[in-house]
Amino acid sequence: MEFFKKLFASKKKPELPSAQPFDESLSEIDLSEAEKANLAAREASQACLDRHWNAVGLSERDVLGYMISPSFMGGPDWPSTRQAYRIVRRGDSIILASEGLSDPFDDAEGLGNGFEMELFIETADIPEHARGALGDVAPLQQSWAFELLKHIAATVANAGGITGQLQKYGALSLELPGFSQSHYMSDQMPAHFVTEDDMVGVLLGAPDADFPSVLNDMPLSPVKLVSVVLMTAAELEYVRAGGQKAREDLIVRLQAAGVGHINTFNRTSVV
């Protein structure tokens, strides 16, 4: 968890990713046969994600990405050097999703679609100044949802993916310390989501989304779309005290309350 403290406290004004066209195809000139196969698998993976997210909502053409991969600057390694975030507009809600955790591994063959997962968070509770109009994704860099997703993606990449843990436990809970040191979350999130010891808690992988969350038609191996759902401070304390059984019960309660996977600030605790 010290990793999150370092991320939150690293810079007062963080270096933000830039909006980039989604088509990141590479030239096949001078590529080896293995590199061509990797490129083809990567493009097929991207096309599969395109189809899925466009069936869920309106997927923006541009992504939030980096001119220089963070992995070259001391950040955790993703399967490839591509680290990006997709924006999907869905009625009043916006989905922010990682893009690259399921890329085929660079310089490796036979290892499947990267970490075989992507993260996503859905919410309508993004400040107007950070929503951006259709075709303009850059303002979303300044949203609590993007900051949260970016830090969780870094943790997942640092762990080499979490699909094994999700398969074993069904869902995971994660605590993020140093909330008051965050750049946008501390200004935009209500106080009842923050514990007295300056933590924010999330569920990973549950409750279930209202759209398919496993992509079986990825070129190398199936990929799971892992939801990120905020817990209130009371819910986090409940999970802290009760462990896995409490986490499972909390998921059932969230589903019964109609909260599901969507992050809503004005909801009350279900415990």
What does this entry look like structurally?
With 271 residues, the chain is an alpha+beta fold. The chain has one domain. It has seven helices and eleven strands. It has helices at 2-9, 33-56, 128-131, 144-158, 163-169, 185-188, 233-256; strands at residues 18-21, 58-59, 62-65, 84-90, 93-99, 117-123, 172-176, 200-204, 214-215, 223-231, 262-263. The strands form two sheets. Strands 2, 4, 5, 6, 7, 8, 9, 10 and 11 form a nine-stranded mixed sheet that branches. It has a two-stranded antiparallel ribbon with strand order 1-3. β4 and β5 form a beta hairpin. The longest helix is centred in the N-terminal third of the chain and has 24 residues, at 33-56. The two termini are 25 Å apart. The model is unreliable at 1-15 (pLDDT under 50).
Task: Give a quick set of tags describing it.
271 residues, alpha+beta, 7 helices, 32% helix, disordered N terminus
Q: Beta-strand percentage?
A: 15-25%
Work out the radius of gyration. 18 Å
- The number of helical segments is 7
The span between the termini is 25 Å
Query: Kindly state the mean pLDDT as a whole number?
Result: 89
Q: Order of SSEs, N→C?
A: HEHEEEEEHHHEHEEEHE
Enumerate the spans where pLDDT stays under 50 for 5 or more consecutive residues: 1-15
Number of strands: 11
* Residue share in helix: 25-40%
Task: Describe the main β-sheet briefly.
Answer: 9 strands, mixed
Tell the overall outline: globular
Structural class by SSE content: alpha+beta
* Count of all domains: 1
